[in-house]
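Researcher: Quick test of sequence recovery. C-alpha cells follow.
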C-alpha cells in the first residue's frame, strides 16, 4: 500500500506517539499499584488520559483515514481493546483486596487479565503508530520519506 499525502498527517502521527508513550507510563503505574499497592488515584487518572488519547487515535484512524485498510483495522482494534480495558479495570477495582490482605483468586485473575490486556493495548498502539507513520505523509508530498521506506 502506498503512502497518502494528508494535510493533517502530523496530527495523527503526534497522537499515536503520545498514545504509545501514555500506555507505557500507565503500565508502569499499574505495576506499581499491583506490586507495592500504591498509586491507585494516579493510575485511574492516567487511565482517563490513555482512554481519551486512544479514542482520538482510534476514531481518526477508523473515521478520517478509514480508506487505508491497515489504519481502519488498527483503529477499530484500539477502540475494542480500550473498551475491554475499561471493563476489566472496573471489575479489578471491585475485586481489589484491602491493603495488607491477600487478593482472592478471582481478584488475582481479573487483575492479570487487565494487565495482559494493557500489554495488548501497547502492542496494538505501536502497530497503529507504525502504520500511521508508514501510510500518512504530511502535505502534498507524493514520495515516501526515507524513514517511511524503512518501516
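Model:
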Amino acid at each position: 500500500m502506498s503512502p497518502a499525502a494528508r494535510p493533517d498527517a502530523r496530527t495523527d502521527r503526534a497522537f499515536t506517539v503520545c498514545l504509545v508513550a501514555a500506555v507505557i507510563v500507565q503500565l508502569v503505574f499499574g505495576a506499581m499499584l499491583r506490586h507495592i499497592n500504591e498509586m491507585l488515584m494516579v493510575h485511574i487518572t492516567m487511565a482517563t488520559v490513555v482512554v481519551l488519547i486512544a479514542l482520538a487515535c482510534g476514531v481518526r484512524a477508523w473515521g478520517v483515514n478509514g480508506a487505508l485498510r491497515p489504519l481502519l483495522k488498527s483503529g477499530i482494534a484500539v477502540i475494542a481493546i480500550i473498551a475491554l480495558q475499561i471493563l476489566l479495570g472496573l471489575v479489578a477495582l471491585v475485586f481489589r483486596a484491602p491493603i495488607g490482605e491477600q487478593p482472592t483468586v478471582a481478584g488475582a485473575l481479573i487483575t492479570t487479565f487487565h494487565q495482559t490486556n494493557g500489554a495488548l493495548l501497547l502492542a496494538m498502539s505501536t502497530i497503529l503508530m507504525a502504520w500511521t507513520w508508514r501510510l500518512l505523509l504530511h502535505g502534498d508530498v507524493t514520495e515516501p520519506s526515507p524513514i517511511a521506506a524503512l518501516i
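Helices lie at 9-36, 40-64, 69-94, 105-135, 146-150.
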